[in-house]
């Protein structure tokens, strides 16, 4: 009798232990957790940029000189500092657009024109000499662009991107001077041009990388190839009172190197917690 009682008590204890054992196995039997996908985010942002532009082979042109066989034999320019501002919208985690305005500082341009002048009187009593005109001027620009960018993903807080933009540029030539000289030794002259401005179609392509300083603040290091169009002076005045056609600097293009900041008004939401599948 005692043995049966012992077996019954042992069996009851065993059955009582089953739920506890099952509870211990419960987490092992659950399905793996699945992370909810991160949601796209959007919102407005402000941007500011500073940089320097290296001009790419602009071409000088003087219609009056070209009409008598003259051409520019030397051209040069300094680099152009600029500052820019803009406002944009981030549609999601890969597409954004903005509208920007840049002010490009007055930059020195130089050009030397060469032509044969058959009417100059030389010191030796003959006529005709090679004439050189040394032009100096400053070019400044206002540039307005509508841009679109594709962000290519983020690794270690770095987001590479590419983009393109189109808009308008207002190029102004100011303070132009013209100093003449002759290879025969004849006395040259001095001239100057009125200031002139011209609106042009502008376009750009972008590439760079952004660093996520925080969820709201992005630091950009970027390259931009910018086409600015042409710049045209006002009427050219000679020292003896004559006038001639304006001088042009055509096909102005720049390799721009920029550092910028973007400030997002709406901080991207944090990813939702993991989802647990039941069943």
Detailed description of the structure:
The chain has 279 residues and is mainly beta. It has one domain (44-264): Porin, CATH 2.40.160.20. It contains two helices and 13 strands; from the N terminus they run H-E-E-H-E-E-E-E-E-E-E-E-E-E-E. The chain has helices spanning 2-29, 63-67; strands at residues 43-55, 59-62, 71-77, 80-90, 95-121, 127-151, 158-182, 190-193, 196-212, 217-232, 236-238, 243-244, 247-264. An eight-stranded antiparallel beta barrel has the order 1-4-5-6-7-9-10-13. A hairpin with a 4-residue loop joins strand 11 and strand 12 (243-244). The longest helix has 28 residues, at 2-29.
Tags for this model:
eight-stranded antiparallel beta barrel, 13 strands, 279 residues, disordered N terminus, Porin, mainly beta, 12% helix
CATH topology value: Porin
The parts where pLDDT drops under 50 for at least 5 residues are: 1-39
Strand order of the largest sheet: 1-4-5-6-7-9-10-13
The rounded distance between the terminal residues' Cα atoms is 46 Å
The CATH class name reads: Mainly Beta
Main beta sheet, described? 8 strands, antiparallel, barrel
Q: What would the principal axes of the Cα set say about the shape?
A: elongated
Query: What is the structural class?
Result: mainly beta
Radius of gyration: 36 Å
> Can you count the beta strands?
13
pLDDT averaged residue by residue? 85
Instruction: Bin the helical content.
Output: 10-25%
How many H/I helical runs? 2
| Residue share in β-strands | over 45%
Domains, number: 1
* Second-tier CATH architecture: Beta Barrel
